[in-house]
Amino acid sequence: MGKSTVVPFGPQHPVLPEPIHFDLELEDEKVVKAIPSIGYVHRGLEKLVEKRGFQEYVYVAERVCGICSFGHGWGYSKAIEGLMEIEIPKRAEYLRTIWHEISRLHSHLLWAGLGADALGFESLFMQCWRIRETILDIIEQTTGGRVIFSVCKVGGVRRDIPDQELKEIVKRLDALKKEIDGVADIFLNDETIHARLKGVGTVTYDEAVALGCVGPTARASGVPQDYRIGDEGGAYKELGFTPVLATEGDCFARVKVRLLELYQSLDIIKGCVENMPAGDIAVPVKGFPPAAEYFTRVEQPRGEAVYYVKGNKTKNLERFRLRTPTNANIPVLVKMLQGCDLADVPNIILTIDPCISCCER
Amino acid sequence: MSYIKKSPWLVHYDGSSCNGCDIEVLACLTPLYDVERFGIVNTGNPKHADIFLVTGGVNTQNLPVVKQIYEQIPEPKVVIAVGTCACSGGVFRDCYNMLGGMDKAIPVDVYVPGCAARPESIIDGVVKGLSVLEEKQKALAVPVREKQALRERELEPEVAINKSQEAGK
Amino acid sequence: MKQIFIQTAAADLLGKAAQYKKDGYRMVQILCTRVPEGYELTYSFDKDYVMENLRVVVPLEGSVMSVTSQYWYAFVWENEIHDLFGLNVEFIAPEVDYGGKFFHLAKPMPWHELANAKQPAAAVKVNLRPGLGVDAAVKPAAKPAAPAAKPAEGGN
Predict the structure, then answer these.
(1) Contact C1 A295 (CB under 8 A)
(2) What is the pLDDT of residue B79?
(3) C105 and B97: CB-CB below 8 Å?
(4) What is the mean pLDDT of chain C?
(5) Residue A78: helix, strand or coil by DSSP?
(6) Cβ-nearest to A212 among C49, C71, C102
(7) What is the domain range of residue C97?
(8) Taking the CA atoms of chain B, what radius of gyration do you get in angstroms?
(9) B74: how many CB neighbours lie within 10 A of its CB?
(10) pTM of the predicted structure, to 2 decimals
(11) Domains of chain B, with CATH numbers?
């Protein structure tokens, strides 16, 4: 029988960008049980629909999370458009897809940098974020903001990207590919990273299904869970989509899936630009949401996010609910932390790509 | 900016932020904006820090946490509230769980607005914070002779009392 | 996206969840809305990207059985519903029943009360001017004769 201790992990920790608290019950160096405790970032913004009009609320929905910001704005707009049966122009759909894939690029590179920082690989963290600045430049050029885009609205998008500009963006992203190659090469081939991530936090295919995880966490265990396959409308259906899968299910497999998704996003953006339809970018929205309800989903960088809206014929919605991917990945995290070493705890927590502000809203 | 006199270390904590300002704070450290060339280091330990960079508003859960981190930072210290949420609560100020901006928890010296605050604004805020830090340092500085007398009184009270009696004679 | 809502009694919930589990459905989320009758719960299940939603209405003082026996990971949403809404969810798996300490909040059960926005504007009676009947404010415009008759009655 080893020595038992309880170590509080978080909310302030050098490796965590956001506050989350775990009480880790240890026996010597092994974690026996992990008890999560959340609420540090809980703002209660779902109740804010009662005070803000349904069109104004897009700005609040975007600020649920700064990293997955565009996805939330898109999901909310899509939910209201489904509720009010508004059909947006094709060009708006393609523009939204381009911005969402650019958002995925920036999110995965951000995560790669933070993951490297948690391992102690500071120079890799700096390089990942340096590459990310090119993407933020593109975002700023097309939307005006680096982090919060504010370009999605109910009925379409607020800004257009001229075709000439789209072609230039594709050229810049092609030049970026070489730099991503350099970073991916280190992540996938470095001995220290192999030693620290391979075999750590393994989740088998059956466990992944039984624990209901989503996003790259599930795809790294071989579960083909990606809402972009099942999306009934939009650019993904027209361009065709196959998810990136890995089979080992450990931390290294999750790194691999996210890096390969970077290349996939570059291809999707190119496909959207080549097939970009001409036309309007938005339709006017008249009236109030009916007394009905609507579910919609978006595949965020971290996984599938579910948006639910319920209208009541007034300017304010009755209910808005957002089930974020990190919310669905907490059970798998609790399971993974059982039986791991104390030194692996930050790596495991970072490999599910936690976005605590999304999780707690 | 007196970059030779001090190499300020900063500790960063996210209150109830959406992360937007946090990633812009981290972007300041990365090669494009690079504050590390001024000697500014992002440390994880509040006891090693001079500057407290805080984002997001305050809710009852993180109120004691923010206060505890603030108390752990040794004097002189500067608090910089980054982002509109830290200044006043931002878009979330009507939410049921939010108490308001960071000044509801700790005294703030510099307010950096923006949603998300741009790295240029954050660096400007840190530079302003450094001049506040210098003023605080001057106010805190105790003359050398007084410091010596204080130390003597602590270590050997009888020797100190005799010395002062002799000086008085 | 096709919206499928199936009304279910609270007693049938566990049986239906077990059936979904057997058929290979994945549980997506549990949603709670505060309605005048109590709580409206929606359990969403997904297979091949088609989502089916079970709708259960529970009265205010009532409780609902936990589905953690079928879907262990539902504990996240069940703890959240208990902490935010005050709904009693019974028999959550013991290792993940956090007893109200999962979500820390300023005010306990902030969603327990019904929102004020539900009051329809027509129900508010407004006294416009003395002599004008109180009902004049909500009288429909299609009956011009009626308001003319009212002031005489109101004045008396």
Answers:
(1) yes
(2) 93
(3) yes
(4) 70
(5) helix
(6) C71
(7) 4-118
(8) 20
(9) 11
(10) 0.84
(11) 9-141 (3.40.50.12280)
pLDDT (tens digit, 9 = 90+) per residue, B42-85? 888 889 998 999 998 888 888 888 899 999 998 888 999 999 98
The CATH architecture assigned to A44-360 reads: Orthogonal Bundle (1.10)
Beta strands across the sheet bearing C50-59: C4-8, C50-59, C38-47, C26-35
A75 touches chain C (CB under 8 A): no
Q: In the prediction, which pLDDT does C136 show?
A: 39
Edge to edge, what strands does the sheet with B9-14 contain?
Answer: B41-42, B9-14, B51-55, B78-82, B110-112
- ipTM score of complex: 0.85
Residue B153 has pLDDT above 80, yes or no: no
Q: Which chains neighbour C (Cβ–Cβ under 8 Å, 3 or more pairs)?
A: A, B
B145 pLDDT tier (thresholds 50, 70, 90): low
Domain ranges of chain A: 44-360
Strand partners, C50: C47
Distance (Å, whole) CA A331 – CA C71: 11
Cβ A42–C33 below 8 Å, yes or no? no
Q: What is the mean pLDDT of residues B94-106?
A: 84
Residue numbers of A between 34 and 93 with CB closer than 8 Å to B: 39-45, 47-48, 51, 59-60, 63-67, 69
SS3 B11: strand
Domain match, C129 and C114 both? no
**Once rounded to an integer, what is the mean pLDDT over residues B110-136?**
89
The answer to whether the beta carbons of residues A125 and A117 sit under 8 Å apart is yes
List the structure tokens of A89: 């122009």
Q: Cα dihedral sign for B35, B39, B44, B47?
A: negative
CATH code of the domain in which C10 resides: 3.30.460.80
User: Do C128 and C99 share a structural domain?
Assistant: no
